[in-house]
Amino acid sequence: MHILFINRAVIPVFAYGGTERVIWDLGLALVKMGHRVSYLVPSGSQCPFGQVIEIQEELDWQSQIPADVDVVHFQFNPGLELTLDRPWLMTQHGNSQVGEVLPANTVFVSRDHAQRHNARCHVHNGLDWSAYGPVELGKPDDYFHFLGKAAWRVKNVQGAIDTCLQAPANLVVMGGNRLNLKRGFRFTWSRKIQFKGMVGGETKFSVMRRSKGLVFPVRWHEPFGLAVIESLYFGCPVFATPYGALPELVPAACGVLSNHQSDLAAALTEQLFDRETCHLHARENFNAERMAQGYLHVYLSLLSGAPLNETQPCMLEPASPLPWLKNSHR
């Protein structure tokens, strides 16, 4: 089968993870399974295992698709009116606006993500763990970590900081700075909190490799959570809110889910988790091969003429932020 991925961002982009890493790993896994992949992407992209075609903005999508492509896989919404002469689908990687209608052949990245769009078709993200270097499951250093774009209020970096200060515990923040003017004015005085800024690659891996766990009290319905599975892969239990896909990613043996700050703060110092259990959970359930198998099932459904969803998906949930309670009264 020949699959064409269409994305509006340059590939590869490995500096901070995200959509580009997922579609790179998906393509590589499909090639290893005997399929052919091509990428229709902006200038500057490169890929050793698939054909790269530069997007021509002045042309329509139909005229840019090679004749031997079997399935076209968009990584963004190409529009409800799009018609092609072969099967196509899109993956919705993020949350939509309330009331936004998506194409019927939309795939979501978690069961919760699909349900909140009144849809059913979903494939969990997976990653090529061979690119993550060594894993150290022995005694970690004396810190936890936060990983996410701290400028997004729904990621709740302040909640992660407050949780660790309450514990008390040391925290390394990846994805934000000590002084953040984008949120009005936030300056973190405590030296128990370290800031690494926007990091990726081996710098990110080295922090997670020695961390005691991920503190991730998001205040929105997380569509998936790559930071979660990356942390679990390095043996880090997850201390997070129970929103969006997080209950699908974090079983009781791998962390604590609560929207009460005091619960998570207590768990940081009182609950112990087996690092190998966390590592195996991510490695076995959220790898690129398993993701590729999920998408192959979707591609075959499309080729047979079966619909992915009964109706056009539409976001149902209200806007963020979701509750974050500083003290537990249960």
Write a structural description.
This protein is of the alpha/beta class. The chain contains nine helices and 14 strands. It has helices spanning 19-32, 111-115, 157-166, 201-209, 226-233, 246-249, 261-270, 275-285, 288-303; strands at residues 2-6, 36-41, 51-54, 71-74, 88-92, 106-108, 144-147, 171-174, 179-180, 186-187, 193-197, 214-216, 238-240, 255-257. It is globular and about 60 Å long. It starts with a strand and ends in a 27-residue tail after the last helix. The mean pLDDT is 93.
Along the chain, the helix and strand elements come as EHEEEEEHEHEEEEHEHEHEHHH
Q: What's the helical proportion of residues?
A: 25-40%
**Termini separation (Å)?**
54 Å
* Overall mean pLDDT: 93
Strand order of the largest sheet: 3-2-1-4-5-6
Keyphrases for this structure?
330 residues, alpha/beta, 3-stranded parallel sheet
Write the layout of secondary structure elements.
Blueprint: E1 2-6, H1 19-32, E2 36-41, E3 51-54, E4 71-74, E5 88-92, E6 106-108, H2 111-115, E7 144-147, H3 157-166, E8 171-174, E9 179-180, E10 186-187, E11 193-197, H4 201-209, E12 214-216, H5 226-233, E13 238-240, H6 246-249, E14 255-257, H7 261-270, H8 275-285, H9 288-303
Parallel strand pairs: 1-2, 1-4, 2-3, 4-5, 5-6, 7-8, 8-11, 12-13, 13-14
Antiparallel strand pairs: 9-10
Helix pairs in contact: 1-9, 3-7, 5-8
Overview in brief:
The protein has 330 residues and is an alpha/beta fold. It has 9 helices and 14 strands.
